[in-house]
Amino acid sequence: MKIFKAGIVTILIFSSFLVIGQKINSPYSRYGLGYLHGKNISTALTGMGGISFAMWNPNKINPTNPASYGKFDSLSFIFEVGLIGNYTDHRTSLKSESSDYVTLSHIFIGFPVTNWWRTSLGALPYSKIGYDVNVMVDMSEYDFTNVINSIEGDGGINQFYWGNGFNIGKRLRLGFDAIFLFGEGSRSSMVYFPDSINIFGTKTNTKTVGSDFIFDYGIQYDIPLKDKKLLTLGAVYSNSWNMNASRSTFAYTLRGGYDDIVEIVKDTIIYSPEEKGKVVIPDRFGIGIVFRDENLWLVGADFEWQQWEKFSSFGRSDSLDNAWRVSVGGEITPKHTSISNLFKRMTYRVGFRYVNSYLSLLGKPINEYGISFGFTFPMKKSKTTIDLGVEAGSRGTTDNNLIQENFINVTFGVSVSEHWFHKRKYR
After folding, report:
1. Could you tell me the pTM of the whole model?
2. Which residues in the chain show pLDDT less than 70?
3. Which end of the chain has a smaller Cβ tally under 10 Å, C or N?
């Protein structure tokens, strides 16, 4: 019980850092719920392209499929924490600029409850919002001052989960995650006339706050093959949920508010302090397969689909498309013994993912792909590992004056697995 309480306190503390530290820069996060992260965010999974639905490891935590908790070592307490650093080059057909950030990516704990029941707790992002875009409209042909539309957004949704995995015999595992979603998003839009002091600008600020519980369900099944080979099938499902939310809107005319000029409010246009509503999060389904040789290598693939065309916020849709993801990847450990040199005991990973996102703008789909690789560095005489993952990829396109985002993600994680649940016979 002390371990359980300590784990909850630790998760809550790090959840506050997740809320404070997540800042991104992507104009595409303006739509829907923003940039979606999913739950395959751990360093090891990232290095394999995000394959996760059929993945399990007795000394690592995979919250993407809660059935995987059933494979935790029956005597171990597992603790994982990770950081992510991002560098993005934003390009249009005319110019480019870059942005970067570093933030805490996740924190997980896992441990056995009984011989057939394992549990896990964790905190990680669900979605992120972050953009700052200025669009100038040239009005010179109409003999009028230029017009600039400035749009900004910040915030996102985080998730705190409590998961449980159950062993049904030796081959079948079932699990579920009870997930508490919480967070807020702020969006603003301002139209102003930088070349004229005689025309008032107009600004609208909207802030949405939401929180609710949702549930993920998972299943895994192992099929033993010849020569210690094993085939694992996995699937996850999340049904549609209506998240409780409130929204405040403030629209007004102003002077200034740009180029470090002090904002002076003139007249209020709209003031709506607290509007209650629902944000519909659509159902999600995923399947995966992993083929492995115990302690040596594995290869796998995932397919995930989510019905985002049913998304709505306060009764209004955002013209989103249904989204899907395909991931393939694998890992190899040349020699899994404690007396081998470091390079033979290390685990090497590689993967690829392609995401058909829920966005289409100006007739162009805003899709994403990433190529990844990673390593695990094991500690001697311990199950503790240090994990490193690198992913390079691209999102969007420069066609039709849209923005292409070329990114590099570097993830760093520490996984601690210690025997806490047995008594020593000798001291």
Report:
1. 0.89
2. 1-22, 142-143, 336-340, 420-427
3. C
